[in-house]
Design goal:
This protein is α/β, with parallel strands linked by helices and about 240 residues long. It is about 40% helix and about 20% strand.
Amino acid sequence: MLIYGRNPVREAFRAGKTAEKIFFVKGERDARLSALFSEAKEKGVPVEYVERAVMDKLTGGGNHQGVAARVTDFSYSSLDDILSIAESRGEKLLVVLLDGITDPHNLGAIVRSAECFGAHGIVIPARRSVGVTDTVVKVSSGATEHMAIAKVTNLNDAIRELKERNVWVYACDFGGEAPKCADLKDDTALVVGSEGAGVHRLTRELCDGVITIPERGKINSLNASVAAGVVLYEAARQRA
């Protein structure tokens, strides 16, 4: 869905909608446009500058005020929703928290693995993280239709809430124990970081433990979505 105009785009951001791309007219200079640009960059939304004629065509001649955004209509869940799903199934919680995943292909692959291995939901931060875009839906092979995905203001606060509910939280990072050595049968949350930064220091410090996948190759780290799949498989194996 394409929306345009400064206020509609700004309100879409405030409402937590996921923007797949934001378009600006080349050469437009305005404080409100600058603010939208800054927010888009902070959220990791791709930005494209186009000629005014292109924008006019894109918006069907509407009053775009120099900006338009393509947003998704995906309906996000809450953390409570995810907890309720596990409870309704009579299962121990298995949830994945994503710390700074900005590649929609990675998110889509993680959603697909999470659904395949019986996770009850995925939690993503509202800022500096990719949301559910058309690309995510496509890469997930439709798993987004069957997976609760919550968008939270602060990932660390979500971890604190889970710990208060007696959920064991593991960071998937370097310097920890092998997945098979961790007890993943009880209520468990897995924190997966970005490929560049990994799990942020403060986030890692909040976790109860660290899981590290043993590797023998010359490349020192797995793709984030592959790492998530490996640990999710181990959780499913232990629970089986």
